[in-house]
Amino acid sequence: MKESVRKLGLIGAGLWAITEDKVNDLVKELIDKGDISKEEGKKAIQDMLEERKKQKLDLEKKISEKIQESISKTDVFAKKDMHELESRIETLEDEIQRIKNKEKMFFK
User: Fold this and answer.
1) pLDDT one digit per residue (tens) for the chain, 108 residues
2) Cross-referenced InterPro entries, in alphabetical order (predicted)?
């Protein structure tokens, strides 16, 4: 019984990482040993699958938050930023060329 409870605890701790088939196999093993009834087994499977889904969603949310946090901390330029800088550079280059042309006319 102690080993069975330990297995159930391990299932709960890393539930998101195991398959539904593995959950079914572990619960079937507990039923076969007489540690739990079929009704308890069905309930355990349902509870574990719901917990697995919840853990998966929580993990995805945490990963997404960490990615967004990492992106916000970096100095990454967006395409929009790059286009804006290119436009400003072109404007400056045009102005430099205009000044050079004026100087050529003035010093002739």
Assistant:
1) 455 545 555 555 555 556 777 778 888 888 888 888 888 888 888 887 788 788 888 888 888 888 888 777 776 667 788 899 999 999 999 999 999 888 777 776
2) PhaF_PhaI (IPR008769)
